[in-house]
């Protein structure tokens, strides 16, 4: 009888995990389709890929797509307990470590672009030119690579040659050979969190001052920019919390394995998937030019509107 109860309990647990993995696949597929549509819209008009905020937006979409694909692959491998060679896991870990930082750093750059547009409108065309945008993207990837370079440099100095030839279930914990390495990784993440939060708050305060002093059409435009900064701040908060997720999960793992599984699933949905559905909301729906261009793309050119004159 006890054996039957154990079997039923095991089947229920497997069904629960299967439902969860299926839900994740549906959400990831939907987000990837939406992002692909937005990227297609971005490349349909030169106005978008010569304007800084849209270029940064496209960079965020590409980063989101890649991190969704990588984390989803790791989730599936972990769910089915597939082992892969450590060297292959290292490549996936390196890419995911860099792109986890690319999105929040890009969001910070987008907030600064709104700050320049609203608080320094006369200098906006010079500071936010296409050339400056390309330099900005290089800086974004450079800053996003620093934590990974530091962490991997220490790892390479500590790991033996035989470590790379073993087959393992791929996760970040594999590369933390000493507890202090995890503490260092956490410290770097918190430093980035602090700097980006200060940047967001600074931009918000400056834009708020301009919004209070503005009048008429300028006031409406400024308040819209302020709301965009607030949405960026919330999206950035979710992205930055995900930097803490591995450390929260590691602590929970010491308490209870099932609690660890539940917390990891919650973190993935809330702090990996949710922030990446906000980019389409902020620019795909709230930005008038991009929204009309998106409609034009979705309806294959059948949608007509006066606001589309710049697009046709």
Helix content: over 70%
The helix count comes to: 10
Ranges where pLDDT stays below 50 over 5 or more residues in a row are 1-10
Quote the beta fraction. under 5%
Computed Rg: 22 Å
From the spread of the alpha carbons, the general shape counts as globular
Order of helices and strands: HHEHHHEHHHHH
Tally of extended strands?
Answer: 2
Class of secondary structure makeup: mainly alpha
Question: Mean pLDDT score, rounded?
Answer: 78
Main β-sheet, spatial strand arrangement: 1-2
Largest sheet: 2 strands, antiparallel
Protein described:
This protein has 312 residues and is mainly α. Helix content is 79%, strand content 1%. It is built from ten helices and two strands. It has helices spanning 2-42, 52-79, 86-119, 121-127, 130-158, 179-213, 216-253, 257-273, 278-285, 288-298, and strands at 84-85, 167-168. Strands 1-2 form a two-stranded antiparallel sheet. Helix 1 (2-42) packs antiparallel against helix 2 (52-79), helix 1 packs across helix 10 and helix 3 runs antiparallel to helix 4 (121-127). The chain is globular, with a radius of gyration of 22 Å. Residues 1-10 have low confidence and may be disordered.
């Amino acid at each position: 009888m006890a054996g039957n109860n154990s079997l039923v309990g095991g089947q229920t647990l497997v069904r629960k995990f299967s439902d969860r993995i299926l839900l994740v696949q549906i959400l990831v597929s939907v987000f990837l389709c939406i992002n692909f549509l937005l990227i297609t819209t971005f490349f349909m008009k030169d106005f978008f890929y010569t304007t800084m905020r849209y270029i940064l937006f496209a960079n965020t979409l590409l980063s989101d797509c890649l991190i969704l694909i990588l984390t989803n692959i790791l989730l599936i491998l972990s769910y089915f307990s597939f082992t892969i060679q450590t060297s292959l896991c290292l490549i996936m870990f390196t890419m995911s470590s860099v792109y986890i930082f690319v999105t929040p750093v890009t969001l910070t750059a987008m907030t600064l672009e709104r700050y320049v547009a609203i608080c320094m409108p006369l200098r906006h065309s010079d500071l936010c030119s296409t050339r400056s945008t390309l330099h900005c993207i290089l800086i974004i990837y450079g800053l996003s690579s620093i934590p990974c370079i530091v962490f991997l440099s220490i790892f390479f100095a500590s790991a033996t040659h035989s470590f790379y030839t073993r087959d393992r279930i791929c996760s970040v914990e594999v590369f933390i050979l000493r507890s202090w390495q995890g503490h260092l990784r956490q410290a770097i993440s918190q430093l980035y969190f602090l700097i980006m939060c200060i940047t967001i708050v600074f931009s918000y305060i400056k834009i708020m001052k301009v919004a209070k002093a503005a009048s008429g059409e300028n006031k409406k435009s400024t308040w819209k920019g302020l709301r965009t900064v607030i949405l960026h701040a919330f999206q950035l908060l979710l992205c930055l919390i995900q930097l803490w997720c591995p450390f929260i999960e590691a602590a929970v793992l010491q308490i209870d394995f099932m609690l660890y599984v539940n917390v990891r699933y919650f973190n993935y949905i809330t702090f990996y998937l949710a922030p990446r559905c906000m980019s389409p909301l902020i620019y795909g729906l709230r930005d008038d030019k991009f929204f009309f261009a998106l409609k034009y793309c979705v309806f294959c050119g059948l949608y007509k509107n006066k606001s589309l004159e710049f697009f046709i």
